[in-house]
Amino acid sequence: MTSDSAHSADLLVIGWGLAGLVAAGEAASAGKHVVIVDQEPRTNLGGQAWWSFGGLFFIDSPEQRRFGIHDSLDLARQDWFATAGFDRDEDAWPRQWAEAYLQFAHQEKRAWLREKGVGFFPVVGWAERGGYTATGPGNSVPRFHITWGTGPGLVAPFHAALEKHEAEGRVTVLPRHRVTTLTTVNGTVTGAAGDVLAPSGAARGVATSREVVGSFTITAAATIVSSGGIGGNHDLVRRNWPASLGTPPASMVTGVPAYVDGSMQQITASAGGHLINTDRMWHYVEGIQNWDPVWPGHGIRILPGPSSIWLDATGRRLPVPLFPGFDTLGTLAHLRSTGYDHSWFILSQKIIEKEFTLSGSEQNPDLTEKDLSLLVKSRLGKGAAGPVQAFMDHGADFVVRDTLDELIAGMRELPGGDVLDAERVRYEVESRDREIDNDFTKDAQIAMLRSARAYRGDKLIRTATPHRVLDRAAGPLIAVKLHVLTRKSLGGIETDLSARALAADGAPVPGLYAAGEASGFGGGGVHGYRALEGTFVGGCLFSGRVAGRAAAAAV
């Protein structure tokens, strides 16, 4: 065991994901001395955001206007609140955070990031398309702006700022420091204590040991909890699983590193913080097993265009409007009602070439490395993008065959494939294909994908020309087995608009603040039940900035 260590600072930040980096940077820029701790080795600075696609939600941006997209604060507010579905007394602060975040996304957010050197891919993506009425959930227009450089490009300026402050003595970075308690004196949070873990040279994202080699205490005038959510802890995900989504899956893949374990939730509650909306969560239904995993159970999300045929485990097509990319929560709820943990995409080579993107910085080397020649080849050239082709070649969930009979036989050979009804699959695919012969159709998915191609961005790089999936010229045929992929906590520590953590009676807990996913991205659940996408890293930016500035002003 090493000797105990003691530190003091104006501000303590727990967790060095994007929210923590932003909060620490804001406080240091205000002249405060900051200590930032994390249980992982320093290779993980930036947390989950580094692994992300770097998608950002803007309202009425220059990128939108160049593509003829007419967006407005009123339209975005309509979409946000219809999607969130706020319906609880505990949603009072989340509602106010939503209003504040919409203003930020409409006005200052883009300019603030541009000043820091962050750029954006010119084509705006259309995520969570909804498919209901104007007052239903979903984005009415494309709003998903991809950071040029993806997650690493978004993290970079805040990482650089932290290191600059560290070199100048305003920030102390303490890796492998795991907080086990928030210390309090007469109800005021005065810092934290915990374990020093054994040094680790593990690469980013790789699970590390929990061997304890010492202990520490940190005294601070203000403490910001920015420790992330629970997506790496399947037991906690299942424990918080909402009754509205049926029983939790027995089998899931994991979309975040193992350190996203929810360990600070009860520690914060024990210090007086109030956890709300813990049953609200955002897990994807297009998860695939990573053939080259970094962390345990590593899954990747497919970001699909709108053309793939989506079948449940038995081969029945999903109901309207549960098409790829339309309503994540609605699709998850439906699939949980089927009694099976997996579902299927069936598509053609022509569709996968145009429509399949894999979520994550490491799965998009063209955007992450800012490689224009690779980008043109990947997004506009012949053949599937390199990372997608690698999954087709090596992925356990991909079946590639020349005929439908061969494809169905291959699907049935995968675990759980025995419940697939071959005749039902054939009926669904052939029936869908008959609807393609006319420019008009009763098939809502075909009508939707034709509508999507009216948007130039989708037509250019995101939506395949409508065609028969069984057309030999569009082949070979591809089936993908899809898993539930854990990702985000939508609830968390309740905070006011200054990011002060609140007690159960609504009063601020003196000395305690929260930001990022630990606070439900603001207020204890700024998204309500559903997210419009591009709003997770954006929520970390906004809540981290608010927390850093407010805590610095208070000490």
From TrEMBL:
Q: Does the keyword Flavoprotein apply?
A: yes
- Coiled-coil-forming residues are none
- Give the FAD-dependent oxidoreductase 2 FAD-binding domain ranges: 10-537
Keyword annotations for this protein, in alphabetical order, are: Flavoprotein, Oxidoreductase
Q: GO: which molecular function terms?
A: steroid dehydrogenase activity, acting on the CH-CH group of donors
- InterPro entries given in the database record: FAD-dep_OxRdtase_2_FAD-bd, FAD/NAD-bd_sf, KsdD_DH, Succ_DH/fumarate_Rdtase_cat_sf
Query: Which Pfam family is one of those matched by this entry?
Result: FAD_binding_2
Task: Extract the PANTHER family matched here.
Answer: 3-KETOSTEROID-DELTA-1-DEHYDROGENASE (PTHR43260), KSDD-LIKE STEROID DEHYDROGENASE RV0785 (PTHR43260:SF1)
Mind telling me what this protein is named? FAD-binding dehydrogenase
